[in-house]
TrEMBL record:
<keyword id="KW-0140">cGMP</keyword>
<dbReference type="InterPro" id="IPR023174">
    <property type="entry name" value="PDEase_CS"/>
</dbReference>
<feature type="domain" description="PDEase">
    <location>
        <begin position="156"/>
        <end position="487"/>
    </location>
</feature>
<dbReference type="InterPro" id="IPR023088">
    <property type="entry name" value="PDEase"/>
</dbReference>
<dbReference type="GO" id="GO:0047555">
    <property type="term" value="F:3',5'-cyclic-GMP phosphodiesterase activity"/>
</dbReference>
<dbReference type="InterPro" id="IPR003607">
    <property type="entry name" value="HD/PDEase_dom"/>
</dbReference>
<dbReference type="InterPro" id="IPR036971">
    <property type="entry name" value="PDEase_catalytic_dom_sf"/>
</dbReference>
<feature type="binding site">
    <location>
        <position position="283"/>
    </location>
    <ligand>
        <name>Zn(2+) 1</name>
    </ligand>
</feature>
<dbReference type="InterPro" id="IPR002073">
    <property type="entry name" value="PDEase_catalytic_dom"/>
</dbReference>
<feature type="active site" description="Proton donor">
    <location>
        <position position="243"/>
    </location>
</feature>
<feature type="binding site">
    <location>
        <begin position="243"/>
        <end position="247"/>
    </location>
    <ligand>
        <name>AMP</name>
    </ligand>
</feature>
<feature type="binding site">
    <location>
        <position position="284"/>
    </location>
    <ligand>
        <name>Zn(2+) 2</name>
    </ligand>
</feature>
<dbReference type="Pfam" id="PF00233">
    <property type="entry name" value="PDEase_I"/>
</dbReference>
<dbReference type="GO" id="GO:0007165">
    <property type="term" value="P:signal transduction"/>
</dbReference>
<comment type="pathway">
    <text>Purine metabolism; 3',5'-cyclic GMP degradation; GMP from 3',5'-cyclic GMP: step 1/1.</text>
</comment>
<comment type="similarity">
    <text>Belongs to the cyclic nucleotide phosphodiesterase family. PDE9 subfamily.</text>
</comment>
<comment type="function">
    <text>Specifically hydrolyzes the second messenger cGMP, which is a key regulator of many important physiological processes. Highly specific: compared to other members of the cyclic nucleotide phosphodiesterase family, has the highest affinity and selectivity for cGMP. Specifically regulates natriuretic-peptide-dependent cGMP signaling in heart, acting as a regulator of cardiac hypertrophy in myocytes and muscle. Does not regulate nitric oxide-dependent cGMP in heart.</text>
</comment>
């Protein structure tokens, strides 16, 4: 039997393990646990030289001292214990509710049966290792496993490359089909429901946005180049809970909707529209799921590269121009160098302005120039920035059934970050801490202090946004305030 030798760093020591390919997964884990002086309750994580997590399994690739893995004890499995207790608690409350309802109705209502089934399913999952992957602590050895919380779960048997190629084929085969007038019109409103569309279809709809704004004709963009560009953009979004391709699509669709709602076509030039739409599309490229504060505190490569100055936004922008530097993807390739420089400058401004650390600065500038806003003035650059920014944080302007799942995705990403911060001993970002925030508290604060002031200001310039943006956001505030009140009342009544 041939054995392989694995070199790895653990607790500052270089170690080696030797095992055969027919060795069991449990044996391999035990080998690493022993080296890390960890017990069975600990969760181990192995990183390769490029910092990606690899699976602790017999198929682990042999390496040399120079290319050794990093082995880390990232958590004890306490979280499962806590989750398990919470599920038991939930189950007891459901049983209690069921018996009360039974007294009156003599039958268990469907919704209680459904809830019971969900709790049961959750408990089963918790008993397997599946939950570790939701927490980002376990990876299948299928190199780049897709995130379980991705809003659009894809076929697990296919590799990422194969899945992407499948999306590409579907996109290209559908893109010649006629998108109905009804869909085209719907695409221009904040009512659009992203959850009904799969990735290939979203690529077709993005193509429609460029064509319906006449951008292909105005900038001599070949259809094939636009399709290559859109596909590359799609490939450069990660499968993470929130900052994924679906988010990119939603932000671009909202930007597109705002262009039509506020009739920007008659107020700005085609170049400005191209800048805004393309900035929205590229604004979160290759987002890793951990925000700037984390990048800076953890001293990541991005923070080092960009000197702690908006590391993520600088990266999104750099990735965008990396894609645009490939001739087959460059929708800007038929422009003069002066036009290119102008569009590049505009996109950099718009994408960098999505850093929420600059929120007040940008809002205040907009407030100052607001009375007597002049669209032909150079100052409209500020308007472009604010429109992309508004689109970026506009989920709550959408119907509740569309917006609420987005909040779940966002909190998932937040909690993932704060869990990692706790594990690594980094400062914990309070609004991401699962022990401190809840859905309603997160949303009432965000709507009161971020959304309403910004949207109110924009509505002064475009009164039609009152109906399309402000009103839905006010309704969302009511909804989450009610939820907050109800959960406080419930806590009061269940207090021992
Ligand atoms: N609480 C809350 N935060 C949001 C919402 N939408 C966007 N954000 C935050 O606004 C930020 C905008 O920039 P990022 O994409 O980095 O991260 C986003 C989130 O942190 C929302 O609906 N609720
Ligand atoms: Zn974003």
């Amino acid at each position: 039997m041939t054995t392989k030798i694995i070199h790895f760093m653990v607790n500052g020591r270089l170690e080696r393990a030797e095992f055969g390919a027919d060795c069991s997964a449990a044996d391999v884990k035990d080998l690493f646990r022993a080296a890390a002086e960890a017990g069975p309750q600990h969760i181990l994580k192995i990183y390769n030289t490029s910092g990606s997590v690899v699976n602790v399994c017999p198929q682990l690739e042999a390496n040399s001292e120079d290319s050794c893995y990093q082995l880390e004890v990232v958590a004890t499995d306490l979280q499962s214990v806590v989750m398990s207790a919470e599920l038991d608690n939930m189950e007891n409350r459901l049983l209690h509710m069921e018996s009360k309802v039974m007294e009156e109705m003599r039958k268990t209502p469907d919704f209680i049966c459904e809830l019971k089934q969900q709790v049961e399913c959750f408990k089963r999952k918790l008993e397997t290792v599946e939950h570790l992957s939701w927490m980002g602590l376990f990876k299948d050895h299928n190199e780049q496993q897709l995130c379980k919380f991705s809003p659009d779960p894809r076929t697990p048997e296919l590799s990422v490359q194969e899945q992407r190629q499948q999306v590409r084929r579907k996109f290209l085969s559908m893109s010649s089909l006629q998108v109905t007038e009804e869909v085209r019109e719907h695409l221009k409103t904040p009512m659009f429901d992203n959850w009904q569309w799969e990735e290939a279809e979203m690529l077709v709809l993005l193509q429609v946005m460029y064509t319906d704004l006449d951008l292909l004709t105005a900038f001599h963009i070949e259809l094939e180049v636009l399709q290559n560009f859109l596909f590359e953009v799609y490939c450069h979004y990660n499968s993470i809970p929130f900052h994924n391709f679906q988010h990119c699509f939603c932000v671009t669709q909202m930007m597109y909707g705002l262009i039509w709602l506020t009739d920007l076509r008659s107020k700005l030039g085609r170049t400005d529209l191209l800048i805004m739409l393309t900035s929205a599309l590229c604004h979160d490229l290759d987002h890793p799921g951990y925000n700037n504060v984390y990048q800076i505190n953890a001293q990541t490569d991005l923070a080092l590269r960009y000197n702690d100055i908006s590391p993520l936004e600088n990266h999104h922008c750099a990735v965008a121009f990396g894609i645009l530097s490939k001739p087959e993807c460059s929708i800007l390739r038929n422009l003069s160098s002066e036009q290119y420089r102008h569009i590049r400058g505009g996109m950099i401004k718009c994408i960098l302005a999505t850093d929420m650390a600059r929120h007040n600065e940008i809002l205040n500038k907009f407030k100052v120039m607001q009375p007597g806003f002049n669209f032909s003035d150079q100052d409209h650059k500020e308007l472009m920035k604010i429109m992309v920014k508004v689109s970026d944080i506009s989920n709550e302007a959408r119907p509740m059934a569309v917006a609420e799942p987005w909040l779940d995705c966002l909190l998932q990403e937040f909690f993932n970050q704060s869990d990692t911060e706790k594990l690594k001993g980094l400062p914990v970002t309070p609004f991401m801490d699962r022990d401190k925030v809840s859905k309603p508290s997160s949303q009432t604060n965000f709507i009161r202090f971020v959304l309403l002031p910004l949207f109110t200001e924009l509505t002064k310039l475009f009164p039609c946004l009152e109906k399309h943006i402000l009103e839905p956001v006010r309704r969302a505030l009511e909804y989450y305030s009610d939820m907050e009140r109800a959960s406080k009342e419930e806590q009061e009544t269940t207090k021992p």
